Amino acid sequence: MATRKKSGASKKSAGASRKSSTVKRAGAAVKSGASKKTGASKRAGAARRAGATRAGAAMPVAAAAGDAVPFLRRRDEGPEVDNLQEELCDIGYLTRAQKALGPGKFGPRTEEALKHFQRDNFIAETGVYDEETQAAIRQLNEGVKRGIEGNIVRGLQNRLVSLGFMTQVIAGQGKFGPQTEAALLGFQMAQGIMQTGVLTDETYRGLLAAAPHPTPITDHGDPTRIDTVLPSEGRGFTTYRRSPGGADQFGRASTIRAITDVAETWSTRHAAPRLQIGDISRRGGGRLEPHDSHQRGVDVDMRPIRNDGREQPVRFDQAGYSHELTKELCQLIRAKVPGVRIFFNDPRLIGLGLTARLIFHDDHLHVRFPS
Q: Which residue in 329, 224, 195, 332 sits closest to 284, CA to CA?
């Protein structure tokens, strides 16, 4: 990656420029402990950063002690937004062409790219460049390597599992140990990247390109834990009426994996529409209004399939409903997951033994995975 010029105080700060691709491949910056952008160089540009504006007003500064980077959000403008966009380009969530459409302006494209990064790294999907997200970016800048812990490591493990470079993480989720290092070295070798065993921008871009929507990893430590969130979208599926951060779409790891497995198979049969996933459970379980169920991480709402390819709601007794496609979906779910129960009030599906009747289930399937 070509060295990127920085403006203002950051440009003058020692060590503020990004590592060149040569340094990255050699791994020298990692071995010497030097970071791509040190906290000192960030603070050296505080005066410039204070000029970042939101609707013409001075941006507030992050409250964390010693962290002078402002919290950035949609409609903000200024050099800090430009720096954020550069970060998102470096790791593969924005292209240079996309950035050129609004450099230094925090618009919907930048917000969606940031949400994608947050979603991939188990950070609340707020679209705000907050303290936790900044910390994850700093870890990438410094090189994520053996001994590091946190959500950025969980995201890395997630992709390595999805790509087949490591088995399910039986212990040590979020901990960069020898298993993760060996898997990352294997990925780097397969991609022709310098084998350092360190997650840098170049390796991150490769992982993102290879697995844009990784399947959530399974926690074998306690299979009943309700701590795995469904991504907002993935291969063959999208979500609807999703709460911020997917707060109402947590499930057991086995449930989330079953959903994504069904959706992936569906995508090989139908380019559109994708499966539409609604309520599952809250993290840890408990009451999820207005449901009496959805408390154990095994109950999943899905919309029936329309006959016009649209990803919109439909009742079984409306003209836009496809009985045949919805029947195919029910058959697929049952073939993939023995012991599953499906509640939906299409009388023809009930007659075939594919679904069972349940009040208020005319416009969505309630899929109960085995517990």
A: 224
